[in-house]
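Thread: quick sanity check before group meeting

JM: Hey all, I'm pulling together slides for Thursday and realized we never actually wrote out the predicted structure for the chain we discussed last week. Dropping the sequence here so it's in one place. If anyone has concerns about the input, flag it before I start.
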Amino acid sequence: MAASRIVIENCAIATVDAHDTEYASGHVVVADNRIESVGAGRAPAALERVVRRIDGTGHLVTPGLVNTHHHFYQWITRGLATDHNLFDWLVALYPVWARIDEPMVRAAARGSLAMMARGGVTTAMDHHYVYPRGTGDLSGAIIGAAAETGVRFTLARGSMDRGASDGGLPPDFAVESLDSALAATEETVDRHHDPAFDAMTQIAVAPCSPFSVSTELLSQGAELARRKGVRLHTHGSETVEEEQFCKELFGMGPTDYFESTGWLGSDVWMAHCVHMNDSDIAAFARTGTGVAHCPSSNARLGAGIARVPEMLAAGVPVGLGVDGTASNESGELHTELRNALLINRLGARRESALNARQALRLGTYGGAQVLGRAAQIGSIEPGKLADLVLWKLDTLAHASIADPVVALVFGAAAPVTLSLVNGETVVEDSRLTTVDEDAVARETRSEARRLARIAAEG
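JM (edit): ok, ran it. Output follows.
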């Protein structure tokens, strides 16, 4: 059957391709779930089977935003421990998180996904690593919420096996055994990972962090991921305290420790990477290891400023991450475009650290690189999947900014007139079309209260 087409025209376009091609007024043609063409001026008038033609006057089209690090379950513990550093924050919240169950996780995932999707995210990921015993199918609940919301999704199936009695931060009842963590992770890969070009669900192997997992879980997790042909994800070099922990426990810094356990490579990406020296950055560049930069969370927890300009200059793949909403209460990725640019300008390179187009690339193509999907998403090019966002830039908030990319990145959060994922509408006129936002808000509020009651009861 001939393809059905959606035509978007009369809009500015930032393709984020290898040449940063842009059109002041152009068109994008979507055929089924693929981008068929992009170019200047209006789309050809004689196109057949056009089911929708959109006048994009006053708008900018970009690739959909790609989130590379998140913890959905934290949606129902927002606004707590607001003046803590990372380790104190974890100690305060782990006892609460250890009480989560399947309905809570489902509600939190729906809330996290809805907030991201309505703000232009078309590909999301969740690093879920808290699996209390007997609490249901948490991974299935998260994956189901993503399917319902309609976004492309990677579940990083996390794990922890180093509890407090072994020198870790989480309470003992919040961790799994080595064998059960590996078995459950492999089962999740077998049940849910889709290697197809247009896959909507993929799985990564993701032990939580050096201070909550054993060396055996890291090394055997890496072996499992490579045997199954999936990617690897964890937290790395987030704080000074983490570096001290690694040196005291393992006799080396985080990057050297990760390399010793098989955790550097082009199939690996790590969250944060704030405290990286020149040799660490060189090791990531040499091995193709990616970074999920989470500027708002790093600022919220006082972790520091990641050396993103130096990473990019060295050739390290870098994307953006919301991080969990207990350390970034807004839960939105498009605000990270602006925050990445501004926070990095407080670093060594100051006003030349990042520009608007580099920030947009971090949130689109950079994220696709980090998730291993740069051949399919992250730029507007013929043959790629139709994950697109149409941003409204003709309101008061952006009216006097001539450059649309500068308006999107430097300006206030722009409304999303249309978001397509796989050629399907997910957002229309700043409202989700796939789920009832008000119902999601009520559900997440109810589950947050229930978790607070259970945690208070001990």
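AS: nice. The CA atoms of residues 88 and 306 lie 21 Å apart. The longest helix spans residues 437-457.
JM: adding both to the slides.
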